[in-house]
Amino acid sequence: MSNADSEEVSVVVERGGISVEKSFEPDDFPVPAIAFVIHSDREELTDVEIVDSVPDDVPAQDIGFHPKYGADFWRVEDDRIVFEREFEAGEEYTTVYGLRAKDTDDIERFLTEPSIEGVEGEESVSDIIGDEDADEDEADEEEAPDTSIELEEPIEVDEEDEETADEDAAPAPAEASADDLESAIASINEGAADGAEGDIDATVETAPEEEPAHGNGTAEAVSVNDLAATLASEIRAGDVADEDLETLRGALGPDIDALETEAEVPGHVEAKLDKLQADVDEVVAYTGALEAFLDDAGTAEELLSIREQFGDIEESVQRLEGTVEGVESDVTAVDDRMDDVDEQVASMAETTTALDDRVADVEDELADLRGELATMQDELGEDLESRVAAVETELDEMEDDIETLENLRQALAGD
Fold first, then answer.
1. Distance CA 346, CA 352 (A)
2. In Å, how far from its chain's centre is CA 164?
3. Which one of 164-168, 212-216, 405-409 scores highest in mean pLDDT?
4. Which tens digits make up the pLDDT trace of 71-115?
5. CA distance 286 to 83
6. CATH number reported for the structural domain that contains residue 28 in this entry
7. What letter does residue 240 receive in the DSSP assignment?
8. Phi and psi at residue 100, to the nearest 5°
9. d(Cα 13, Cα 113) in Å, to the nearest integer?
10. Structural domain of residue 255, as residue ranges?
11. Does 163 reside within a domain?
12. Within a 10 A sphere around the Cβ of 361, how many other Cβ atoms?
């Protein structure tokens, strides 16, 4: 069964007691990632294999795995990625793979349902393969000749020889001389030759006490384990001649390769190798994010060019700020003048209001006068006209009298 929620951006798949929740986590990890929370409800140890597909336009090699979240359990197969790990009963595990920034624009295409494999039926596929492998291993063990080195009796060392070795600070078994190594190789070759005729049972016998050991003249015994470690170290260091190496390979067969690969590595070297592997895995995990960053931000040269352009823009902004300060000063002066104008306008508004009131009063008085005039015209009527005519007649008579008097004055003045 499976379900997907577009708001939570997740998909849940269950099969055979194994559940996988696949979700998009943009902020919980160093880079945007697809997270898988895998939970086992089974009662036995189960080998779980999760197969997920990637979009066609995204190469599987562009998917980055984080070393802290199960990078060692992932592998890329063509256009799909596979996670495989053993789960204890009731165990839950979280693993992720990182995405490029450009791939997060359409995240739904990554949220396809993963498939759970290896959990069908009562017995898992890994159990069946494991039983078959076990049978094959048992058959191989029965058929393979015994090429191991056995000691019939423990090596005995006299107490006096042991004390002498302690006082002389004899070298450790891992530092045995080349002569000891050659003697051991010869013993192994003889044992291998004897084993070719019958059951191979190579033994290393103790040297007679009267034979001095190589080096400091005391009896020095080299155990088989130390001899094997020394032999493997010499082979790994390349100090063994090619013909001797071929002889060993012919006598021991696959055991010589085991000596090359199973040589004990010092603890500090192994720690450094583990640290180096972790660093490499972490670099690989962040490679995708770094490439995406370079795609988005550009190279160092582009960044320097952008920085120079930014410097020019900053200078322009500074000049613009100076201009803006000057404009602000002018605006402040204009604001002061506007305050004065506002006061004058307010005063004129008051004066205009007073004039409006007086004009209204005058208009009222004029209307009253016009009314009174109309009333007087109605009252006077024709009487006024006759009186005016009489006055005009009297004026005419008075003009005649004035003319007569003027003539008389002139006459008197002539005399």
1. 10
2. 65
3. 405-409
4. 899 988 877 889 999 999 999 999 998 887 677 777 888 888 999
5. 19
6. 2.60.40.1170
7. S
8. -75, 155
9. 7
10. 230-263
11. no
12. 10
